[in-house]
Amino acid sequence: MYSRAVWQEGSKEVEGVVPSKWIASSSSVVFYPPKNAKSAAETALSPAVGWKEFRLIKTKFSSGKLL
Question: Given Cys at both, which of 3, 7, 53, 67 links 30, Cβ 3.0 to 4.6 Å?
């Protein structure tokens, strides 16, 4: 499952499609890999130690397909 989300990176808002498991709604965090993000998203890798963390602003919607 994938989600279109908005998160805070420094002073700007970023909107993108990420695997839903990259979003921790309970703690308002979006995890993002430090490299090879496209490949990690396509294979829906689980977040791991060393991944970047950004403040989740909102999740717009979710879908079973990579949008």
Answer: 7
